[in-house]
Design goal:
Blueprint lengths: L9 E4 L7 H17 L5 E5 L10 H12 L4 E4 L11 H8 L17 E7 L1 H7 L8 E6 L1 H4 L4 E7 L2 E2 L3 E2 L3 H5 L5 H14 L11 H14 L5 E11 L2 E10 L2 H15 E3 L4 E7 L8 H4 L1 H4 L5 E11 L9 H10 L4 H10 L1 H5 L2 H8 L7 E6 L5 H6 L3 E2 L2 H8 L7 E4 L5 E5 L6 E3 L1 H4 L2
Parallel strand pairs: 2-3, 2-6, 6-9, 11-18, 12-13, 12-17, 13-14, 14-15
Antiparallel strand pairs: 1-10, 4-5, 7-8, 9-10, 16-17
Helix pairs in contact: 7-8, 7-15, 12-15, 13-15
Length: 436
Amino acid sequence: MNALPDSFPCADGGVERSISKNELETHLEQLVEQWVIRAGVERLLVLPPDHTRLFSMAGPITQWLWRRLGDRITVDVMPALGTHVAMSPEQCELMFGDTIPHDRILQHRWRQDVVRLGEISADRILELSGGRFGESMSIEINRRLFEGRYDLILSVGQVVPHEVIGFANYTKNVCIGAGGQELIHKSHFLGAVCGMESIMGRADTPVRQAVDEAFDTFIRPRVNIRFILTVIEESMQGTVLRGLYAGRDAECFRAAADLSRQVNLTFVDDPLPRCVVFLDPREFHSTWLGNKAIYRTRMAMADGGELFVLAPGVKTFGEDKTVDRLIREYGYRGTDAALAAVDADPQVRQNLTAPAHLIHGSSEGRFQITYCPGDGLRQEEVESVGFNYLRYEEAVARFQTESLEDGWHMDRTGLPFYFVRNPGLGLWATRERFGN
């Protein structure tokens, strides 16, 4: 175990590293001894992601923390839902196991359960966006973080390339995952107007700067929050824990992001004329979540190519009823159409995650997107938002994806395609499109 200072007590990771279950638990034991036992913590709040980050290792870590501490101190768990639908008991057990009582798993309601702490000025947002967006951003966070009398809050989650902020987690898990509607809406819109292809896989982005500033100014001085960050790679042997980083400050995030860029970014030699992406139905039940298939492969797609999204569990568009309605009304028709909707419709302007998502989910006409859902979405629904449609069963028969590994394969007609089994664990690009 690394003998590092209290601000950064765990830094274990590498491109060839495979952290075992026993090694993970040894790390966690030292963190608990240092941060909880010796510090005299009596009330602990754990902030993990929800089941849409099923392979993040945050679930097993949260379960371990409960088993280690639940019978000696007060431990609450609040999944950092952001705008996602609240987890069902079955989804809680899938993510966290069956040892945490359901009444200790708290729901974050992003429209109701927040307190306003301050704002980032319109001038600062205009500066960060390079003149593209110039509205102030109200900082609203779940009130339980401040009113729950917690001695320590542990934010747990995976650092991985992300379409809105560059790399997921660290302050995002708190500010967005436990944030209010304006912070969520405007941060997503800020990322969209700045261009996701200039953001994904980069640790220093306009949204990251805004979120870090919000955290450092309004949250860090008020509560004791520390971070446990994982880096996961999808390998031939399944998901592998390549890194575990823990600390109070950005140092642990920067280390995790550096490793994630090495293990979660896949460069393809040439643009992909056909790509097939599978969405695990346990994680992905909406295009709001499932469009990771688009975000994470868009920089690898060839002009005029076709992306097939195998989505057996997708049955809606938005996680939120209002956003779902706006997606159905305006569709994934590109940046110009989304910005026109912002100008024309007050409902769109009040829910800026919707146009941000419409921008993210469009290929801007550069390649075709064919969604292949099960029975949850009808053909006319899929086509009404601008996607092509193919039945899931027909797509599986064509591509025979049941046991495929990531990479190149042939469909039943002999045509090549590139397969991605878990888009949530990576980013695919050509070196030319990704840049430096």
